[in-house]
Amino acid sequence: MKLYSLMTTAVLIASTSAYYVKNQKSETFSLNVTPVDAGTQEECKTCITFAGQTINDLLQFVLQEEVDVCGDLCQIVVDKTGKEALGVICTILCDVVGIKEFINAIQKADLDPIYFCELVPACPINDNGDAHFTSLEVMPKKGPQGEFDISFEYVSNNGTGTGMLAISVDTVDGIPLGDDFLNFAQPAGTYDGTIKLDAKENPDCDPTQGPCETWEPGTYTIHLSVCNGECGSNHPHSAIYDTKTTTFEITQN
């Protein structure tokens, strides 16, 4: 199955067989990943890419209209997005489970792409999984505005379910910053990677569209979570495995 990737500006450098993919746009974190393995991971990524771009439109449609043919429902995807490729993926997923189960998955998922793709099912479930951070470090620990590398390692004894790696930063001026990445189900093992944080003011930020982080001198706290399912979700097959925090300091330029 061909992959249709989300556009992203976030970069996670992972020196592991784990694979992370961006779920939402970020101007602060950038992403580079290892190749996708064949089989289940490819199908899961394709489904979540599809759901991330279309599930809101599909939910609004099925709540307002009756539809009993996959082709009719998936044509809505093409009409809304202008992307024939997403319509093809929609039809494949819908035909596999049938129109009734497909609509049921859209409604039950409640805008949660991971849970939707577990219901279809395109992504594997592991409710006995676990993960525990063994390290979280920032380099440099102290320095002027610029690029900081946030390296991490976690260990899983029972493997992980399809989930997320979520990062947030407590800033000096109180502006919330965060990002999240898809973490494919993995067997037991040790996994590590590095998130690059671009800690400098974005000249393209428009303050009329929202607050602009200026990266004032001071201490910043990083929170990193590894989760089963979407971090913070109340849906089945969702849990926060572990969260770890660390700090770094921005000095005067």
SSE topology:
Blueprint: E1 12-13, E2 20-22, E3 29-30, H1 40-64, H2 70-81, H3 84-97, H4 99-109, H5 113-119, E4 132-139, E5 142-143, E6 146-156, E7 163-170, E8 177-183, E9 189-199, E10 218-228, E11 239-250
Parallel strand pairs: 5-11
Antiparallel strand pairs: 1-9, 2-8, 3-9, 4-6, 6-9, 7-8, 7-10, 10-11
Helix pairs in contact: 1-2, 1-3, 1-5, 2-3, 3-4, 4-5
**Beta strand %:** 25-35%
In one word, what is the shape?
A: globular
Report the radius of gyration as a whole number of Å.
19 Å
Largest sheet: 6 strands, mixed
Q: CATH homologous superfamily of the largest domain?
A: Immunoglobulins
| Number of individual domains | 2
- How many β strands by DSSP? 11
The name of the CATH architecture of the largest domain is: Sandwich
Elements, N to C (H/E): EEEHHHHHEEEEEEEE
Query: Unreliable runs, pLDDT <50, ≥5 residues?
Result: 1-25, 31-39
Polypeptide structure, described:
The chain has 253 residues and is α+β, with helices and mostly antiparallel strands. It has helices at 40-64, 70-81, 84-97, 99-109, 113-119; strands spanning 12-13, 20-22, 29-30, 132-139, 142-143, 146-156, 163-170, 177-183, 189-199, 218-228, 239-250. The chain has a six-stranded mixed sheet with strand order 2-8-7-10-11-5, with no helix packed on it. The longest helix has 25 residues, at 40-64.
